[in-house]
Structures are given as C-alpha cells and as structure tokens.
Design brief:
Blueprint lengths: L22 H15 L16 H9 L7 H8 L3 H7 L1 H8 L8 E4 L8 E5 L5 E5 L6 E4 H18 L4 H23 L3 H6 L2 E2 H8 L5 H15 L3 H8 E4 L2 E4 L6 E3 H4 L3 H20 L3 H7 L3 E8 L10 E7 L6 E9 L5 H4 L7 H12 L8 E6 L5 E8 L14 H22 L2 H8 L4 H29 L11
Antiparallel strand pairs: 1-4, 2-3, 3-5, 6-7, 8-9, 9-10, 10-11, 11-13, 12-13
Length: 482
C-alpha cells in the first residue's frame, strides 16, 4: 500500500463488504418494508387510554419535588390546554406507548412541543434556531416526537381560537416540513447532515416573503433582543451590588438566593459546600479546553430558580461566577435531571446518570451546543443523591410568543419546527429509512393530522379534569408571579 492508498475501512471478508453505493438503497428498502408492515394510515389511531388517568400520572411525578412549588406547577398547567400539554409529557408518553410504530429509532427529544424550540447563541456567537429542551431525551420511535409536535400545533391553534381549516394548515405544515426535510437529509452525506444548522438570519430570509412588513420588523427586533440576552445582560437583570460585589437579587418564589434560604451560617455553609461539590464533578464532565476556560472563573453566589411548566418543583439553581472582575460574569444553571418519562415504557437509559443522559442526548440532537454543557451527581443537603446538568443560563436564548401568533404565523412556525425536528432526528437515526417510510405523498401527514385532532380533544378533556380538581379543592394552586 502506498502513502496515497486509502486504509481499509473494515476487516470483514470481501464477500461481506458493503458497497457504499448500494447502502442507501438498502436503507431505503428498510423504510419501505416498515411501511408495508405498519401502513402510514395506521398512525391516525389514538387507542383508548388504559391504566392510570392523567391526574394520577401527574401526581406520581410530584414525589420528590419541592412540595411548596407544586401549587405553582398546577397553576401554570391549568392556564390553558396548551400549558397542560406542556407539563404533561408523562401523560402523552403513556398514550404514545400504545400507538403503532415503524420500528425505526432515533434520539428522541421526548417533549417536542412547539414551545421547546427556540433561538440561542452558537459558540461562534451566531443566533441559531433548534430544539432546546432535552429533559426527556432517550432513544425511541421517531414517530413519537412527530406526534407530540403535531398535537401541540393543533392544541395551540385551538387555544388561539383559529378555524379548523387554519389549524389543519398549520399541522400539515409541520408534517410536510418534517417529511420534505427528511427526504433532503436522506440525499446528504453524514457530515453534511452533522454540520447543517439554521441561523436566525437564514430563517428570516426563508420566510420573508410570507411575513407582513410590520411583523417582519417586529421579528427583527425580537432577534436583536435575543442577542442581547448574554451574561452581561443577565448581570444587569438578576444582580445588584453588595459591598461592591454582584449578588443575585431576590424575587421569591421564582428566584431565592441561598443566603435567604439558609440564613443560619452553618446551614448556609453546608449548601455552599454542596454546590461546590456539584461544580467539582461538573468540571470533570467538560473537555480539557473547557475545563481551562471554566477555571478562569470563581463562584460568588447561588440562588434557587423556578423554571418552565413541567419542571416546576424540580431543583434548579442559578450560579453566578466572576472572571476578570465584577464586569466579567458567567451565569450557569444547574437543573435537576430525573428519569425520562420515556424510560417507563422504553426501558432504562444506558448512561450512568440522568444528567449524562440529558447532555449526551442534547449533543446528539443539536447542531451547535453550549460550550459549558455538562453534568454531575451529588448528595444534597438532605443527604439524597440527585443528578444535575449544567449549562449557561442566558446565552441568546429566546422563543416565539405563541399567544400572539396569527394563523398564518402558526403555519410558518410549524413548518420551521417540523424541519428542525427532522434535522435533529437525521443526526441520530437512519434518515434514509425514515425518508423511505414517509415517501413522497402526504399519506403520513394526513394520518398524523387526524391523530393530532384526536389528541387535542383528549388534552382538552384532561385540562378540564384538572380545572375541576382545582375548583373542588383537591389540587392546590397559587397565583403565578410569572
């Protein structure tokens, strides 16, 4: 072999070697065979619910959460059927477990509703659009993410009182966007798929002709606002000076500094030692170059922070670090990671900890990621071990306000989310087989649209049951301070 000869890729016998020119066709046939076994029309089915009802499944998740925050969780979930859907991933997982699947698996987001897509800054300081929540991530059937996305579009349209025809257009836009993007990814090389990402400016250009000038200007202003959400912006929003040093401001119950949670010095030192333990283990999960960067900062303050809808009641900490001086901040968020709701039906994740599961799933699905993403397991002040994953608190993060979208805007946004989900799935699964299963017609789209309508009705029924339980005093709520 000369220096110019390529090294062999495998050591199998020549008779067993795969011809790379035939591999795509083989993968395509896998998808077509799956379609024959499980017709695309079968995905319209929503089996009757068996086992525990929605409220019992939600109550089971309350175990281990901060009890004082549960009334806030249910207040947020009760606001509308869409907020109920956001907080009830466990409920939909139980429902999806009884639906037909093609047998092709990907890295699932596990909670791919409309509000879990958004903007954030890449390491190159470009604003990108992607999936941005991975608390439930696990390997599983690609159809489950697609069905959750489609159902969320339908529910969001109902919340906005859009006409049935407008809702259908939006749902079909998400599904058509997913199908067409997956077929495009099936024709791309693996590295082309891996490097592909969507920057905010490209997204705006793609849909510019479909957005009215006034709304386009508003969108551009929103993107500028997202770009300003960096660590310096967080310093101005979340801190004040105490003896010349930035300290996190109190805004209970949403933000409560450690010094207020534990005014006794001994107890406070205990929680500070625990937070330091988290940081030591977290550092070990970072690549060497990120460790060097992290070591340029020192921790100066911490606070408990309430986040999201479904995550309310889990333990989440905002951590303030300073580098060169008081004008050189770094904000990290340490968020508790529990078992994925998907594990109840798909089996345990292969990772050693839930935090590692979240981080590895996110790295697999996102085109670009947070340079400070890492994980740790640590015993808390109560002596119980808990898993956490850490990331930057605010780094260009922003999302579309679904409550102000018009029907045409929902169509555009649904298409964008469908295409983005396809790219995330194409990175981790057999994109050629999925494309082969989907085909070029809209048969799959129509079936999932029917499923979405049925699931929206079920969600509205579950939301009504929650409201009745609240009105009857069986579930406590508090006013949401936002």
């Amino acid at each position: 072999m000369t220096a110019l000869d390529p090294a062999p890729l495998t050591t199998v016998d020549e008779a067993d070697e795969l011809d790379p020119r035939e591999a795509p066709a083989e993968h395509h046939e896998r998808g077509r065979a799956a379609r024959a076994a499980v017709p695309r029309s079968a995905h319209a089915e929503l089996p009757a619910r068996r086992g525990p009802g929605a409220l019992r499944l939600l109550a089971a998740q309350d175990v281990g959460r901060v009890p004082e925050l549960l009334p806030l969780r249910y207040a947020r979930m009760s606001a509308s059927p869409f907020t109920f859907l956001r907080g009830s991933a466990a409920v939909m997982t139980a429902d999806l477990a009884r639906t037909p699947v093609s047998g092709i698996e990907v890295q699932l987001c596990g909670d791919a509703h409309l509000a879990n897509f958004g903007f954030f800054s890449s390491p190159e300081r470009r604003l990108v659009f992607d999936v941005n929540d991975f608390d439930e991530t696990l390997t599983g059937p690609w159809e489950w993410d697609v069905k959750r996305l489609a159902a969320s579009v339908e529910v969001a349209g109902r919340d906005r009182l859009f006409a049935p025809a407008d809702r259908e257009l939006a749902v079909l836009a998400a599904l058509r966007g997913y199908r067409k993007a997956m077929r495009r990814y099936a024709r791309m090389t693996t590295l082309e798929v891996w490097y592909d990402h969507l920057e905010a400016e490209d997204a705006l250009r793609r849909y510019r002709s479909r957005i009215a000038p006034g709304r386009r200007s508003r969108m551009e202003r929103n993107l500028d606002k997202f770009r300003s959400r960096d660590n310096l912006g967080a310093l101005a929003r979340f801190t004040g000076l105490v003896d010349g040093t930035p300290r996190i401001r109190s805004a209970p119950p949403l933000v409560v500094p450690v010094r207020e949670m534990y005014p006794d010095e001994v107890a406070r030192r205990g929680i500070e030692d625990w937070l330091q333990e988290i940081l030591v283990g977290y550092r070990e999960s970072l690549p060497p170059d990120r460790c060097w960067l992290f070591d340029r900062y020192r921790a100066v303050d911490a606070a408990h922070k309430v986040v999201g809808v479904g995550s309310v009641g889990t333990r989440c900490w905002m951590l303030l670090f300073l580098g060169r001086d008081a004008a050189d901040p770094l904000f990290l968020q340490a968020k508790e990671a529990g078992p994925s709701t998907l594990e109840s039906v798909l089996g345990a994740a292969p990772q050693a900890t839930a935090g590692q599961r979240v981080v590895e799933g996110q790295r697999r699905m996102q085109a670009v990621g947070d340079i400070f993403l890492g994980w740790q397991r640590a015993a808390g002040p109560d002596g119980l071990e808990r898993d956490f994953y850490l990331r930057q608190l605010r780094d260009g993060k922003g999302s579309i306000d679904l409550t102000v979208l018009r029907a045409s805007g929902l169509v555009i946004y649904a298409d964008l989310c469908g295409r983005t989900l396809a790219r995330a799935h194409a990175r981790s699964g057999d994109r050629i087989a999925i494309a082969g299963y989907l085909g070029s017609s809209d048969s799959f789209d129509r079936a999932i649209a029917a499923f979405a309508r049925a699931y929206a009705q079920r969600t509205e029924s579950d939301h009504a049951a929650l409201r009745r339980a609240i009105d009857a005093g069986r579930i406590a709520v508090v006013e949401d301070p936002k």
